[in-house]
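Q: Could you fold this chain for me?
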Amino acid sequence: MVNQHERLDKRYWQLARNAGIASYLDAALLVSTGIALASWQEHYQLNAWWTGALSTILTLCVGAGSFFGGRLSDRFGRVLVFNIDILGVVVGATIIALAPSMPVLVVGLVVAGLASGADLPTSLAVISERVPEQYQGRVVSSTEIFWIAGIVISQGIGFLVSSLAMTGIRLLFVVIAVVALLTWLVRVASPSFKRIEDDLAAECAATQSDAHEQTSRAYPLGKLLTTPRYLLPLIGLSCFYLFWNIPANTWGSFLNYYMVTVGGRTQSFATACAFFANILGVLVLYGIYIRFADGKHRYTMMHIGLILCIASFVLSALAGSASWQVFTVCYFVYCAANMLHGEPLYKVWSQELFPVNARATATGFTYAAVRFITAAFSLATPAIMAASPTTLLWLLVGSLCLSYIAAMLIIRFIGRHHVADPAIKSRS
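A: Sure. Below is the predicted structure, expressed as structure tokens.
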């Protein structure tokens, strides 16, 4: 059994901090776009469908970037592709920040989306091939702190600049470009960081006994999609993440829009609500989930988290869209409980269920599939909100229930196929 209180090599955390910036950038782009929608709608005089289309364009590009970026990193090297991805985010975010017109804005969203999508599966593979499997739960799931940081920092900046109209929106994306640029400079210009990456990769290659085939050659995509041992978890993981991500993406992209247009709250109130709710999520992630991610309580946390998230949406739907007070409380519960399952668990499973040389491809495949479908949902979300906010809440309840079913099937698969899993080992 893994000692949950064992101090890990500080190099693992240095690696996780740098690679975790991919999660930060992805979240910051999505949330900043969500914050910007109301301002863009007014500035460009867009209707509800065009407003949804901007979010959809970004989400589609993130999905496409995930698929191709993951596959390219398995073929040509994860570190090389990751460095190129980060530079792409610099370019895309800069275009968005300086865009003088809507067509230029769309170009920026496309470039930033492709690059941001490509860096997430690549970053997780960079970590998992350099960290021993008994510590991967803690180290990989720690990147979720950066995801939440991307949300919280973007919301915080959005709150501070909410009175500046389009100037404030441009500042949001300037910050993203600066963070990406600094990360890229560390990765390409720091000899000490390069040494850490090389040393950890060599140590893992020499000492880690992986049940999967380990080779520098990319695992064939066709074989991944036709071998039941990998196809079944690929489908299960896609479903788990998809039905978790539909509610997460909805509130990440449209919380401000929902609270302003449906709840009648101000932009400042909506941004502050999201900011403090996600601070609570960070505390749960850091104080609870990461501490126990490599032990017997991994799935206990999952059950508690999913039940609380489902209950929060049920209560909101029963209270009705007019009760913004109930929705606000339930949103805080959702943000806290959401850190006990969902993306933290998805990231861990995406590394445990597949061969080392197929992890970026598998993660990119699942992430792309999920983003494509959520893009379609986000396109219709403003229209669903306008027609019936309560219907939207019930759709999110159903989505989380399906995510729960997929999670249970994955756990059953892990047990039947003897996949290395500290939670199941601890119970056996």
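A (continued): The chain has 16 helices and no strands.
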